[in-house]
Amino acid sequence: MKISHLKFEYKPSQKPQGKLAYKEPEDIFRPSEDRKYDDPVSNIKKLRQMSNSKKRETVKSINMDGYMIPANKGKITHLCLTYGISGYGPVKENYQKVFKTFLQNMPDARFTVLTSDDKNRKELQSIVDELASSGIKNNPERIKIVNTGQEVSIWAQDSTLVIGNKVIVPEREYIPDEGDKAVARKITRLNPSLKFENIEGLFIDGGNQLATEDKIFLGSDTVNFMMKDMKKYPSKYDRITGELNIKEAEKLSQEELCKLMLTRTFPHQKLVFIGDIGEGEKQPEAHIDLFMTPLGKVDPETGKEVITVGDPFLACKILDKLKENDPEKYAKYEEMIKNKIPNCHERHPLNTITNFIFEEIFLMGYKVNFDKAAKKLEEEGYKVERIPYLTHSSLNNLPNITYNNGLIDGDNFFMPAFNIPELDEIASEVYRKYGYNVIPVEMTSISSQRGALNCITKVLEREYES
Predict the structure, then answer these.
(1) pLDDT tens digits for 109-154?
(2) What is the CA angle 105-108-111, rounded to 5?
(3) Dihedral of the CA atoms 267, 157, 188, 240 (nearest 10)?
(4) How many angstroms separate the CA atoms of 368 and 374, rounded?
(5) Which of the four CATH numbers 3.40.50.2300, 3.90.226.10, 3.75.10.10, 3.40.50.1000 does domain 40-465 have?
């Protein structure tokens, strides 16, 4: 059964504090009056019945109101990127190579690319023109590169969600650049088949959710930020709960109410929260797409769906052993990292990261948060594969070594890579084990800004067989 879906995705960087979420009252999300809020389990059964039907049919996401399109299945047919990098340096060079890799390996996909200024537009257009001479399809309908005239970050993922055929602006705690909050509207103006909406009260950053056919994984900060906002603006949430037909709102705790609001908004998929909920509690990383990846594959031995989860202790042990056995090679890796990171002031960047994380692991229980996430996913029925993960939200201007923040395109997996074979190959082997063609994409420079491949992309449409 072939399913053509309009899809969503993204991730952040170093986040300026205190910017308010963008709202346009006339566009605020309103559920239709006759919308039914069924038990999510029954809706999931309906999806599976569709999937098991012998008749081949195309199901459009336009008919799937409130359905977050899966991130782990299907060929990508339409991808959005945002590009605003001034001057020239390692990050810009890295980004342009990544863009070229996408064009070369996704020859039939459409691209909508929004830039900050005409200089940035011309830089990317020159890459398209160069590849056109070698046979890459190049026409304005397939590859749209548009100067927005506004500052946009490279983090296409976070400031928009794609739900059905709607490109939505969620509320956010932080916005990297002012132009990011206008990205959703610009996408829909360039692509009339997509509809713009603003959604109020639901603090879901694109990178803090990961959807599969029957589940949505949400970082616990989604609920924590909602509860924080609810205390500030109770009347706003009185109105929203009324629109969602939550009659028992006054009898529920804030946490229960927030979860019910999310369930009513996404009735087709079970919600699974990653991280602890409550004042002072937090999830393992700023966004869950940094450290976990649901695969569109099943483990042949157990019959379970597979998820990879980052393991900082594993990465530290591998590098510690490398440093002991081959200090010369280790020193070369450190020098390579310094050359790829703008304004890197660390003489020994890998040492800095591993020493910091070892302290966090043994003194602050840093590893525990990742282990708790892995255990919860196992309890949800998944086969969990642990892979190297080497970063911390407190470490700026150092590589964010993650093999989770990739992009699934059918049987291709665009995997962040860091030219450290001792780490890269361990992660690659896990993805190959489950049938993926791994396309390594070097991300050292970009990752120093606190994101990787999923962070810089937003899937607008994908097609997959279920």
Answers:
(1) 999 999 999 999 999 999 999 998 887 777 778 999 999 999 999 9
(2) 85
(3) 40
(4) 10
(5) 3.75.10.10
pLDDT tens string 399-431: 999 999 999 999 999 999 999 999 999 999 999
**Whose structure tokens read 């098991």?**
52
Helix axis angle, 90-105 to 327-340, nearest 10°: 90
Q: How far is the C-alpha of 357 from the C-alpha of 389, rounded, in Å?
A: 10
Cα distances from 151 to residues 118, 143, 342, in angstroms, run 12, 21, 20
Q: What is d(CA 187, CA 29) in angstroms, rounded to the nearest whole number? A: 18
Centre a 10 Å sphere on the Cβ of residue 122 and count the other Cβ atoms it contains.
13
Amino acid, single-letter form, for residue 72? N
Contact assessment for residue 369 and residue 281, using Cβ atoms and an 8 Å cutoff: no
Q: Which residue has the tokens 């996430």?
A: 373
Report CA torsion sign: 216, 222, 227, 230: negative
* Residues facing 318 on adjacent strands: none
Name the pairing type of β-strands 209-211 and 215-219: antiparallel
Q: How far apart, in whole angstroms, are the C-alpha atoms of residue 277 and residue 285?
A: 14
What token pair was written down for 9? 């995705």
Distance CA 329, CA 335 (A): 10
